[in-house]
Specification:
The complex is a heterodimer of chains A (about 625) and B (about 55).
Chain A lengths: L1 H21 L4 H26 L5 H19 L1 H4 L8 H17 L2 H23 L5 H7 L1 H9 L6 H5 L10 H8 L5 H4 L6 H10 L10 H17 L4 H12 L2 H6 L6 H21 L2 H15 L4 H22 L5 H19 L1 H10 L8 E3 L2 E3 L5 H9 L9 H9 L17 H8 L3 H11 L2 H16 L12 H13 L4 H35 L7 H4 L6 H4 L4 E4 L15 E4 L5 H10 L4 E4 L6 H6 L5 E6 L4 E5 L2
Parallel strand pairs in A: 3-4, 3-5
Antiparallel strand pairs in A: 1-2, 5-7, 6-7
Chain B lengths: L2 E3 L6 E3 L1 H20 L2 H18 L1
Antiparallel strand pairs in B: 1-2
Classes of the chains: A mainly alpha (about 625), B mainly alpha (about 55).
Chain lengths: ~625, ~55
């Protein structure tokens, strides 16, 4: 743990020096910028260590972190620029921010109560991260397997699984199987932007275990809370109410659920909110440092999930329109605007394009496996977004129904699913549905009436993002509306009659107690059992699916799996090597088992013909364990 | 919703009717959440039924 702490401190300290160089006046902007620089630094360090140096190990990461801090120190030195400026002391600003927060809490009972609920929720989530293993569907199929693979390889490279499945033919399978096949590591892990997952990789490299892998989204989500605070302030809310809204963002069921799974959706929403905030700040200031921060936030957002590419397009277009408008109004000179646009684009491309360029290089399409088909121009893929994602994942009762009704039912929290990481037909929580969503109407109306430019842009951009977002009814994918809704709520909350405000406060507290309790139920249910067990026994097999418990009782081994078996639990806390064993015929499959020198083969018996092939391979395979989900064979060497 | 300024420095406060209107909306949505998710199934069926009526 000391190594992880050390590298984090070094990266944050280096980033703090860089923040000082920007001479930002607002304390909140300093905090947000510190978060952005730290995340950018961490991503850069891992990419340099993993891609360029192929030395993804503790000493290299530490060395690069020190180099990052050195660059920060150089940038912060006045001597370098040759200009003596009076910059506010960054650390004093941070301390000032903390003291403002503590004094704001002193005389504000709602803040104290919500703060207490948040603290208890974070304790539960923290214990869950430490005591419970990664268990959620997508993370054990494709968010974490590449991290484990890269950690073991000591390099960020193309996954062997992806190479084996490069000739996959989508026309040979039906739509459901296509979606299922695409869900696993062979495809997604090799093509997804993985900025958020790199947090998990850093913890693996520095700790030599995966204890904190599930906390991958925490830094982004904290940044999202700060961005929510910023959006509320831009909407005209007081600091105390904005602070309350930031805490409510963290208590949003889908966000809370995602704090314990290495997915990317809460991180993405947080980065969209941060990008929106810096876009609005750039509009207000029209200064180069805000163009840089806007570009940095956009780039980091782009590198989390592919939707970010479309969102970056929306932000680029909006800033272009606004910039030209301000140029015409002579608020900014044309060369100055061009310089800021150049800076924005440069930073955005530098921080956000790596994963797309990599996929483009490997597959000939930056957003593979989604087919790009424009008149006269197309890029190869396996199908459209609907074919690959939505058709399979849309609930039956949502099919063929009006989009607006789907959105209403899902956003108003009237779906019948429980709160969990999936967050498909609910996830914003009863507080957001009942109190934030209705607040958007008077908030927008007032902004239009009063001509409040930042709020009008905030609402306009969010609307545009919703228009380009597929399956907008799916709360996990549309989580970025939460900070905007909270800004509307914060604005309205302060303007309510005192007695009504009291009623709203009570309703708010009741709702977040209920929703937080429901979200944390799964964690709290598993924790007592997990806390009684020794650390070596707190595993996926012993706490979730018994079929995987055998992984804990074998010495470090080479495990082969056939498609559709859950992958990540097979790593057994990163002690086993895991690889795909595949072949188009029984003979080629058996040859792969011999060539790849695996000790065990895991088969999902109801998927394809692997189980039959295994049963016909008595000379090579011996049944080791028959389970409900998987069968395990031991390889006869 | 009309607003009035209650102090020189603070934000304009919504009228009582405006505040109550907001609270009522919130309570209704909360009631739907806590009491009757089936209501939406009913609405869904009603819409389907209306769509079917339209086809006649």
């Amino acid at each position: 743990m000391a190594w992880l702490l050390l590298v984090t401190i070094i990266i944050v300290a280096g980033s703090a020096f860089m923040v000082k160089r920007l001479a930002l006046k607002s304390t909140l902007d300093c905090w947000l910028t510190l978060g952005l620089f730290s995340l950018a630094g961490q991503i850069l360090i891992l990419l340099v260590a993993g891609v360029c140096l192929k030395q993804l190990n503790r000493p290299t990461v530490l060395f690069l972190a020190v180099a990052w801090a050195g660059v920060g120190l150089l940038l912060s030195a006045d001597a370098l620029s040759g200009i003596k400026t009076t910059r506010p002391n960054f650390y004093q600003q941070l301390l000032r921010g903390l003291s403002i927060l503590s004094s704001a809490c002193k005389h504000n009972p709602p803040l104290k109560v919500v703060g207490l609920i948040l603290l208890l929720s974070f304790i539960a989530v923290g214990l869950g991260v430490v005591y419970l293993p990664p268990y959620a569907w997508d993370e054990i199929w494709y968010h974490l397997p590449p991290m484990a693979n890269w950690y073991q390889q000591g390099a960020i490279a193309q996954l062997p699984e992806a190479l084996q499945w490069q000739d996959y033919n989508p026309l040979q399978v039906d739509a459901n199987q296509l979606a299922l096949d695409c869900s696993v590591a062979f495809n997604w892990a090799n093509v997804y932007p993985l900025n958020a997952e790199l947090n998990a990789l850093l913890t693996m490299v520095m700790l030599d275990n995966d204890m904190l892998a599930d906390a991958a989204q925490l830094p982004y989500v904290l940044l999202g809370a700060l961005a929510t605070l910023g959006l509320c302030r831009l909407a005209g809310a007081r600091l105390t109410t904005a602070l309350l809204a930031a805490m409510l963002f963290l208590l949003t069921p889908a966000v809370l659920a995602h704090l314990r799974v290495a997915y990317a959706d809460a991180s993405f929403a947080a980065m969209v909110a941060t990008t929106l905030y810096f876009f609005l700040k750039w509009q207000i200031k029209l200064e180069a440092q805000y163009a840089l921060l806007f570009g940095l936030a956009t780039g980091l957002m782009m590198g989390i999930i592919s939707t970010g590419l479309a969102f970056a397009g929306v932000f680029c277009l909006a800033s272009l329109v606004y910039g030209l408008w301000q140029c015409q109004r002579q608020k900014i000179k044309c060369p100055q605007l061009c310089r800021q646009a150049g800076l924005f684009l440069l930073v955005m491309i530098a921080t956000g394009s790596f994963w797309y360029l990599r996929t483009w290089w490997l597959y000939g399409n930056p957003i593979y496996p989604v087919t790009v088909a424009l008149p006269g121009w197309s890029l190869p893929g396996l199908g459209s977004v609907d074919q690959l994602f939505m058709n399979h994942n849309t609930p039956d009762n949502y099919r063929g129904r009006s989009l607006l009704l789907n959105v209403l039912i899902s956003w108003l929290e009237l779906g019948e699913e429980t709160y969990n990481y999936y967050s498909r037909t609910r996830g914003f929580g009863p507080f957001w549905a009942a109190l934030a969503l209705p607040a958007l109407i008077p908030f927008t109306y007032n902004a239009l009436k009063q001509g409040q430019t930042p709020v009008i842009w905030m609402m306009g951009i969010t609307l545009l993002l919703l228009l380009v977002q597929p399956a907008v009814w799916w709360p996990r994918y549309a989580l970025y509306v939460v900070p905007v809704g909270l800004a509307a709520w914060a604005w309205l909350y302060e303007r309510l009659q005192a007695k009504v405000r009291l009623a709203v406060t009570l309703l708010m507290i009741f709702n977040i107690v209920v929703s937080s309790g429901l979200v944390l139920a799964e964690t709290l249910d598993k924790l007592p059992l997990a806390m009684k067990k020794a650390s070596s026994c707190r595993t996926f097999g012993q706490l979730y699916y018994q079929d995987y418990a055998w992984v804990d009782s074998i010495p470090p081994s080479n495990i082969g799996y056939t498609p559709m078996a859950w992958i990540y639990p097979l790593y057994g806390g990163l002690q086993h090597r895991v690889q795909l064993i595949d072949g188009s015929t029984a003979e080629s499959w058996r040859k792969a088992i011999r060539q790849q020198k695996v000790d065990y083969v895991v088969i999902k018996p109801d998927y394809s013909h692997y189980e039959l092939w295994a049963q016909d391979s008595a000379d090579l395979l011996q049944i080791y364990q028959k389970g409900e989900l998987i069968n395990v064979y031991k390889v006869k060497h | 919703m009309s607003t009035r300024s209650n102090t020189n420095s603070g934000p304009k406060i919504l009228s009582l009717s405006g505040s109550l209107c907001y609270l009522t909306a919130a309570v209704i949505i909360n009631l739907l959440y806590y009491l009757n998710p089936g209501l939406w199934a009913l609405l869904d069926n009603t819409l389907k039924w209306l769509a079917w009526v339209k086809t006649l």
